[in-house]
């Protein structure tokens, strides 16, 4: 069997060279990190769940005309995606105050925001992903004004759609992180949604109890991380039968 060429390894995924030009294989790991990777663990089955959840959400977005890099799922841990030039920004859409927004502005967690807020963070582990403004982005050439317009318009559409989709299964979409890339097709370039959408990149709360169903369960030592991800998958109707509930708890990586 031919050994695949690894392109990149991040905290939660590995990228391999795809089977044909312009494609990449995205592998979802069980590793999870928090606080700039100072806290680490391996959670059995997390990668399988994130692969399935992201596949479902990306497919739903493709169906309503939101351009994404997603092509198809290959197996339990891998999906085929289009090769894109990643824009070095994290676009965070916030509907309810939580996380860093609550800390920075002193807003009580759980407070509904007057309207959805979009923030930008420069992708740099070394710099701890600092908050940046549109002025920074355009001045340093990370994205052109038209790129930003496209990213904002897509983020608004994605938020509107996913908020309704999750609320329909009893989940509040508190906030979430998006990444975008430039997809080149001959001489034509367009901005598309890249990376993943999963409980690793979204804050998801039960609509009735406000119980956390996302990565905050790991950040805050609440336990039951894989069970929470499994519940999200179950409510979306995509629970993989082969994924067993987390029985021994997270395995800490030291």
Task: Reconstruct the topology from this structure.
Elements: E1 6-9, E2 13-17, E3 23-28, E4 31-34, E5 39-42, H1 46-63, E6 70-73, E7 78-82, E8 85-86, E9 89-96, H2 99-105, E10 112-122, E11 131-132, H3 134-139, H4 145-167, E12 171-185, E13 188-194, E14 202-206, H5 216-219, H6 225-236, E15 251-252
Antiparallel strand pairs: 1-2, 2-3, 3-7, 4-5, 5-15, 6-7, 8-12, 9-10, 9-12, 10-11, 12-13, 12-14
Defining traits:
254 residues; alpha+beta; Phosphorylase Kinase, domain 1; D-amino Acid Aminotransferase, Chain A, domain 1; 2 domains; 7-stranded antiparallel β-sheet; 5-stranded antiparallel β-sheet; 15 strands; globular; disordered C terminus
Write structural notes for this entry.
The chain is α+β, with helices and mostly antiparallel strands. The chain folds into two domains: 107 residues, Phosphorylase Kinase, domain 1 (2-Layer Sandwich); 122 residues, 2-Layer Sandwich (D-amino Acid Aminotransferase, Chain A, domain 1), CATH 3.30.470.20. The chain contains six helices and 15 strands. The strands form three sheets. Strands 8, 9, 10, 11, 12, 13 and 14 form a seven-stranded antiparallel sheet that branches. Helix 1 runs parallel beside helix 6. The C terminus is likely disordered.
